[in-house]
Specification:
This protein has 216 residues and is of the alpha/beta class. Helix content is 38%, strand content 16%. The protein contains nine helices and seven strands; from the N terminus they run H-E-H-E-H-E-H-H-E-H-E-H-E-H-H-E. It has a seven-stranded mixed beta sheet, with helices on both faces. Helix 3 packs parallel to helix 5 (122-131). The longest helix is centred in the C-terminal third of the chain and has 16 residues, at 156-171.
């Protein structure tokens, strides 16, 4: 990260600690949760999702979700929440995972980002979460605009703007090995107040005041 090899450098759009942040925020907006499932598509390539110092072997095969799983499980231990891994390969798997989670009260859902499988199935995920009374958090505000409860993720526009400085430095002759890879520093939160009300949740000030986008 600090000394990239070869001809590649730039900015990450992922942060290894965000798995724990998702669970923390979910616990704030739904303080009664006792179980939380990390739902993910296992077949996303793991090659681009290995964090420094993190061993993928204990989580394989979990695809891109491996990048976030350690912080998710650490947050679960800290919050006294039972962590559940929910790999899904199809619409049928998504329905089974969310339905199972909703059979008992106090369940929550963290929808892990991947190469696009979850995003493509967002309408079904949002619908099933509402039907089964399961509060869920996502990485992208597009879920919230579609009826999802809460999202928290990197500000992609900020990453794009910051990348211009890398282009400028490289075009002026600087070697990529002298331009350390930068982690995301700007994050965005979106909240769907209507969904929160439908789930019987009271949105705490810690979330309503920090949300960059609130859908009433």
């Amino acid at each position: 990260m600090s000394s990239p090899a070869g001809n590649i450098t730039g900015l990450l759009n992922l942060d290894v600690s965000i798995g724990g942040k998702w669970l923390q925020l979910l616990s704030e907006i739904a303080p009664g949760i006792k179980r939380a499932a990390a739902m993910f598509y296992p077949d996303t390539s793991t090659a681009l999702y290995t964090a420094p110092g993190f061993s993928l072997s204990s989580y394989a095969p979990t695809g891109a979700a491996s990048y976030y799983m350690a912080s998710f499980e650490a947050a679960a231990r800290s919050l006294g929440v039972e962590p559940i891994t929910a790999p899904v390969y199809s619409d049928v798997g998504i329905e089974a995972a969310i339905t199972s989670l909703g059979r008992e009260p106090r369940g929550g859902l963290v929808v892990m980002p991947d190469s696009g499988f979850m995003l493509a199935g967002r309408a079904q995920i949002i619908r099933l979460a509402a039907r089964n009374n399961v509060p869920a958090i996502y990485n992208d505000s597009v879920y919230v605009r579609g009826g999802g409860l809460l999202s928290y993720g990197t500000n992609r526009a900020d990453i794009t703007r910051r990348s211009a400085s890398f282009v400028d430095r490289i075009l002026k002759g600087e070697k990529p090995t002298n331009a350390p890879v930068q982690a995301p520093v700007n994050f965005q939160m979106a909240l769907n107040a209507r969904t929160a009300e439908a789930l019987g949740l009271t949105v705490p000030l810690s979330i309503s005041l920090l949300a960059d986008e609130v859908i009433q």
